[in-house]
Amino acid sequence: MAESATPPPGFTGVYGQVTDAQTQETLIEATVKVVNGGQKSVLTDIDGNYQLALPPGKYDLRVFYDVYEGRRITGVIVEQGKATRLDVQLSADAGAVQEVVVEARADRRAEGALLQERKKAAAVSDSISSQEIARTPDSSASDAVKRVVSVTVVDGRFMLLRGLGGRYSVTLLNGALLPSPEPDEPSVPLDLFPTSLLANLNVVKSYTSDLPGTFGGGTLLIETNTYPSKFEFKPRITFSGDSVSTFQQRNTHPGSFLEALSFAGPDRHLPSGLPQGERMGSAAGTWQSFPNIWSARQSTALPNMGLGASLGDTLRFGNSRLGYLATVNYGHKESVRVSEFARADMPVGQLQAQDATRAVQGTEGATLSALASVGYQFDRDNELTFFSLYTRGTDSNTFTSRGVNNGRSETFESTRLQFVSRALSFNQVRGFHRLNTLADAELDWQANFSRVDRDEPDTRDTLYSDDLGSPTGKFAFPNQPNSGERFFGTLGETSTGGSASLTLPFSDLRLKAGGLAQVSLRDFEARRFRYQLTDDPVDTSLPPEELFASSNLGTGIRMRETTRGDDAYDAYLGVFAGFVTADYKPVEPLRLVGGVRVEQSLQQLTAHSPFDTSPTASTHASYLDVLPAFNAVYALRPDMNLRAGYSYTLARPTFRELAPFIFFDFVRRRNVSGNPNLLETRIHNLDTRLEWFVGENEVLAASVFYKNFQSPIERILRYSGDMGFENADGANSFGAELEARASLGRITPALSNFRAAANLTLIQSNIVLTDPEKLGAQTNSRRPMQGQSPYVINLNLGYDRPESGTEVAVLYNVYGPRISEVGLNPLPDVYERPFHRVDLSVSQKLGNGLQLKLTGSNLLDSAVVLDQGGITILKYRPGIAFSAALGWTL
Amino acid sequence: MKRLALGLTLGTSLLAGCPGPVDPDVADDVSSNITQNTTWTADKVYTLKGYIFVESGTLTIEPGTQVVGEEGSALIITRNAKLNAVGTAARPIVFTSAKPEGERAAGDWGGVVLLGKAKINVAGGTNTVEGFFATSGDERTKYGGDDDAHDCGKLKYARIEFAGFELAEDNELNGLTTGACGSATELDYIQVHKGADDGVEMFGGTANLKHIVISQPDDDGLDYDLGYTGKVQFLVVQQNDRVGNRAIEASGNKTTNTATPRSVPEIWNASFIGSGRAAASTGTKQEGLVFNTGAGIKLNNAIVAHFADKAVDVDGAASAQLSESGNLTIKNTIFWMNKGNTTSIDYSSNPVKDAAGNTTNEDATRLSNDTIYREPDQLLATVNNNRVVDPMLSAAVNAKTPNFKPTAESQALITSNSATPPADGFFDTSAKFIGAVGSTDWTAGWTGYPEN
Lengths: 890, 452
Known about the structure:
The complex is a heterodimer. Chain A is mainly beta.
């Protein structure tokens, strides 16, 4: 029986209509429930109307419906003899057509929902939805995240927030800390995550105590897909290429066919006859058991290919529901990079370029990833989700370089054959329970187990040289390091832990308390071998396959194991934390969120020889930190918020930065090593922000922030030319951000299919180096922080014509010049020049569930340039990239 | 009595350069760092199991003591400690490889490192010694300071064999490495045999060297850098025909060549001997004296002979322009048979190229008036009293049983060809001859030239 739209006179309670936010259609049998003061609830009628009689008071209501996002409306006032009207719109975007199993949380895939969420969020955040991601040429999370305010992506893989280094950007996958499979980089390479896996990316830029204490620029929250409401199978094929690689000559070297499937071939591994646990020794038979492949070969780079499919459904069993989503992706990529490198020095008063070198890198990469997520909703109040991600990738790199070593008065030709395989397995169980007591308290918990492996078997380096001043025309083996060397490195890291939090949603006060425990263990081991001349004559101009042939091993050439005493390390990180937050509304427009987190951490690292566990260096850092956070949100108008926040947070050195292990950077021709004495960084953060949610999917926002760093970790060049890590005394960073997203229909209705977004970040930072020991040979005691850009700009223009299924987007991104390496002795700092990037994406629906997407990236063909006082230290062009993707929905 | 007999046996076997199997009764493994005064005695063989840092105190090593290094080991005297290793001509102290005779090779272990607090020309005044990972927090590998009179200790009548460790390109431990050792340091009667990377490398500082034999190094003989300004007298560098690059590699400061102090040591009575092989048709050159990145020299009474590819290369404007202030001078010196040249020395050009391989400057080694510094024109000018003549050394290029003494009729012994070393208390003013060895062979008795 239909309720009339308006309640009778004298009715005391709440009434209204529940509609679909997108279509404005009314929703039948949606539930409207009181969550405090009694457990009363009603269903909407066939016109979407409801009436709920309630005694006078203040109520929190929840409104939910099967395939929509549930909403909670707090502080509804009921007065005696008055009917309070409350119309509710559910789900922001029907285009997503995804059922929300997790009723209590929004389906964050849709852009509108994200803006809603952001409006409600306690802290400053910026987000990007799967809908928005789909509109861009982005193929991985690293591409997609660039669209967020103040985000910069380095090397196409690593995220920098507010222009700060990777260490200040934490990634949480479904609420759990993700380990990095890259030991040399402090942050998670985001190209691990194909965009089809992403429900949304949310960048939190002001800290709240329920997040891990390691927070600097911000925390990236990656949420993976929820489940389709009906059966869905989506295969997809992509072809891509770029102007510097595809159909061009590419360096390569022989490997197994397994490598195209992302597995290492059997010939890469240490020969089985080699003694484990002790040095190789001097048996020529052992020396001869290594594969004798050293030289680069040539092939033609083929276009890249990607194959993927996703499968999902939601099954109903009475009140229970089971949702699943599985995706499999395979990618194969071939690329070429030509870099020019030089070193700056000052002979007599003026900088000059020395050691000019051209390096060519050919890469063949394969990735294989699989994700499975299964959620079971017992009833509206209890849900369990299993999530498992496995991703692996291989890179077969072949470097050649030719150049000058002025110090040695030589020209050289060198080659590196390198193969790297990476695998990340992440498994998580999550639970959500509404307890139906304590004002519908919510319990969230998750437990996770992850394993990361990185294997670099048999990296081979050769360098042949000739005299610079009076060349003989023939290059010869010089019997020096980095020539005739083999390197084997394996890394494994296991991390396990869990967290739980309890939320008590009282009407004016929302309390949340929780805890976390996470323990990570890492093992790393490397072995090195070198070929050397003996006293027996041998023709050193022979190519390496002949010079190092079995017949010469033991006569003119000997092998030596050059593994170092710090070529292995064991590391442990344990983090145990507890937090309490309170979200309080003292008066209607004002919301105060405060909390404190207590985080205890123990970080240990022991370096040793692979043959001996006695430590050659070690670190044992134990910290107990109390981390307060306060945020205030003042609603100037229902659609306008003013926010301010303060927090005290941390940044820890990574294992790689602590490990004294040394490796050789082939392109830059220098060594990189860690520092066991690094300290934890502590950060005071201040943020204010004004945001105006102008209309649906439209926002204007302005922020100002200040950060004070104590003992920030920086990448420092040493006199030797090698790179290391040091704590500076301190640093300050001031910034402002502006953001606008709007439909151009505001200007004239003719443009209503167009939407524009722009964001700009301005940052001023300075490092404090008063301690002469820390300043060392550095040239400037006052300069910007290493890696900090003074500005980041993103512009985005989109065209969307739903009736023909056409979407077009043009995107522009640039970051300001930032210090790549700190100059010393007393050369200027090395700056990375701005990189202007323009991308275009066109997507067209073809009918029958087919969709074609064409993209072009870096259309300006910009170059990456490092500059030191006018000398170009490094330059390469990533090239203009194109892709075509065809997807079906079956 | 037994102990004495053992000592004698050991002494004898050491002189033969033959450690033989180590008797467990005399073996002493050294695997932890030294933090107090310690004495190593001749009745034991000390095996270095890893990097051994003498963090504080003095390490005394008695005459005749043998110290052997395993792979990946080295003995490092930090700048807060001292070495007191004084052997005798009859009972030298021997640092050698732990491998059995016949299997030893350059680079078997890391060598001896002495670190001090004298001046170096790196901004900030301190540096981390090559061959180690570099961090600001590790005091043990640091060197440099303001004390030019710093005392790293004494190393006398000692041989260092098969040592050196190449961590990476341009980052090596050498047979003997000093960093910022000051003038109170005593380094006398030292042989570094078959050292990798270089025989002796002096990173800045003012330590003096006397009676030094560097035989058959893997790379350079004497390498000095970062503002080394010591005095050197009686120096032999001998290369073999297989490996070895430069007899002297002199470097200043590789980023800012004019950083002070400049690397300008004063060297008297030195013999730099190549292998006499034919000029290289490929690959690494065998060169005499190379000065780059702003380094100079004040060299007198020297022999530069039998280098396959080059006698002298002044590389770069900063070094060339030191010749204008008298800080790159080579005088009273005999050149002979360098790249087969018996009438002159060859010009060595230092072109600059871009990444495409195109030459952008035919020769960067230019004087302040922009003219190219040409080695034969500059060094064979009459004022320098240098000559190209056969020094007639007894058996200088012999790798197994060399003899660096000139024969009686050698021009090296003609007094008017040489100059008198200054009477400053360090130099032996009686050395009025050219080359390291005059009529008395100071290398006899305590040196050795084992092949492996």
